[in-house]
Amino acid sequence: MKIIIDAMGGDNAPKAAVDGAIAALRDFSDIEIVLTGDEQAVKPLLGGQGYDAGRLTVVHTAEVIEMNDAPVKAIKEKKDSSMVRAMDLLSKDPRAMMISAGNTGALVAGSTLLVKRIPGIKRPALASVLPAAKGEVLLIDGGANVDCRPAYLQQFGIMGSIFMSKVFGLEKPRVGLINNGGEEEKGSELTKEAYQLLKAAPINFAGNAEGRDLLSGGFDVVVCDGFTGNILLKFLEGCAKTILGMLKGYIVESAQAKLGAVMMKGAFTKLKKKMDYTEYGAALLLGLRGGVMKAHGSSNGRAFYSSIREARKFISGDVVSVIKEEIGKLNQATAD
Amino acid sequence: MKIIIDAMGGDNAPKAAVDGAIAALRDFSDIEIVLTGDEQAVKPLLGGQGYDAGRLTVVHTAEVIEMNDAPVKAIKEKKDSSMVRAMDLLSKDPRAMMISAGNTGALVAGSTLLVKRIPGIKRPALASVLPAAKGEVLLIDGGANVDCRPAYLQQFGIMGSIFMSKVFGLEKPRVGLINNGGEEEKGSELTKEAYQLLKAAPINFAGNAEGRDLLSGGFDVVVCDGFTGNILLKFLEGCAKTILGMLKGYIVESAQAKLGAVMMKGAFTKLKKKMDYTEYGAALLLGLRGGVMKAHGSSNGRAFYSSIREARKFISGDVVSVIKEEIGKLNQATAD
What we know:
By secondary structure, the first copy, chain A, is of the alpha/beta class. The first copy, chain A, has 2 domains: 2-121 and 288-317, Isopropylmalate Dehydrogenase (3-Layer(aba) Sandwich), CATH 3.40.718.10; 125-277, Isopropylmalate Dehydrogenase (3-Layer(aba) Sandwich), CATH 3.40.718. Chain A has helices at 15-27, 39-42, 71-77, 82-92, 104-115, 150-166, 189-200, 226-251, 255-263, 265-275, 301-316, 319-335; strands at 2-6, 32-37, 56-60, 97-100, 125-131, 136-140, 174-178, 204-209, 221-223, 283-286, 291-294. Chain A has an 11-stranded mixed beta sheet, sandwiched between helices. The radius of gyration of chain A is 21 Å and the shape is globular. Chain A starts with a strand and ends with a helix. The mean pLDDT of chain A is 93.
């Protein structure tokens, strides 16, 4: 299994990518890693850390796409950047998977241009795994498509369902439509129409998911436009921080509560781990002819390691081929 | 100050409304309360509780709008319902304020039909006060208008700003636009255009508010369409429950953590209080010729009491007149 990593993307580049790659090479004997990036920065980080160096290749690149670069312009002009080269390599080897913690807009635009969409897919979408009360839930689209049409949401539901089935091993993932009410007739112009399309899709459609249901464990996949998804993902981050920050404020007011918090340290650590995105690897860009993962910009070595672990499952599950097959069937049925 | 309460709305009707009204009559000598509802159900709850009964009137109504009634149909057909009668009374006395814990759709539709919009207001909007890391933040629209145009969002910003200034006493409330990125050029078709309109409005517009900024304390008002707002409000409820539920699960795994949690009981109680909607009164329906408050369907007596306390501030701040004046000026300026 080949995993291509844009070593220069993200706040902690290239150290985070290199550390994650080395840790993964030690733990997983079935992977091969290609790092794209500045040789002079990457090579000094590789020395003597007890791993099989024969399964690691560094492809030198001279440019870097920065976080504030305009996406399409950067992809077109920085042809020798670590991100563009990683995409080039992926497009030649679609059974591989690429990981980047770089500029999200550039990754979405570049993947669409260079890795290319699966035939019949209208828009690739970002899928993120979130912690739920029981297990996990996949949110799709997390921000690739700000303005959506109903048919996009139908495809997001199909892709998300395939992902949870192939990567998480769920038999019939329950797919929900994020909506402002539980009843079928509720919704915006977009979601009312999307509801009917999801109902007709070859998935286990479980109806509307209201805001309070998203993390309840009642759904395995929740579908929305990228505007809503982006706001929800960042709101979750903000809520967890705000709620725990408030609690901390009340704890320090009392010596007894402070002692109690010390005794609860183990429980807090587990909660922090459960809410920690580094445990969940990265977001997936689904709908492309190869696997593309977007790691958080602030990813550390541990987060890259988790991403590589998830990438292995994505490759084993053959997610790209299954999406291709299902979308082909659906379009065939619609054309008939 | 006259406060009209739909005593038959909500899960705990009519007891919750009556209990809240009596407690408020005891604490606030400057209010007069009108309860609309079934006399036979309401009157037995009023007996001998040591308050000034001279400031309480019961207006008998024979019908009730149920939670699952179709909104517009219910308003048109149930003319002798506690909700419709409360609206009738408010429309004759626009300095008063009405409170209902009943069917939200019926309340929004009915208020627009019977209380009527302020001239120049395109759409009334639901405004909810949320707990933030520092102080509070007003979210508007919380669900009255599922599909919005940019001009609606501009008016929501103006109304929200007036509310936080007149009711919370903030000098120049910082108004943010809920968006999927911090930069001016980010957004959906709707928010890109709304950004420019909010920038031009006579408010302290502080730019885009990303999901993680909503509760950070960096904004006093955050503006969005009612689809996004409804999902965010319910997601906040779900997040708080899920996060604290996870923590509880980890606590019961260890005897030491259980003891620690007991010692932290005070801190947990404060957090619960801070996150408790009953402390925040209700949502406001802004943009109408009278003040309309939507209390949570599960409101208890304490929640009604809080709503009445907030209603007093709304009346004192003369929010309706100030909105009327500001929208008049804005429309005049646009016409010039």
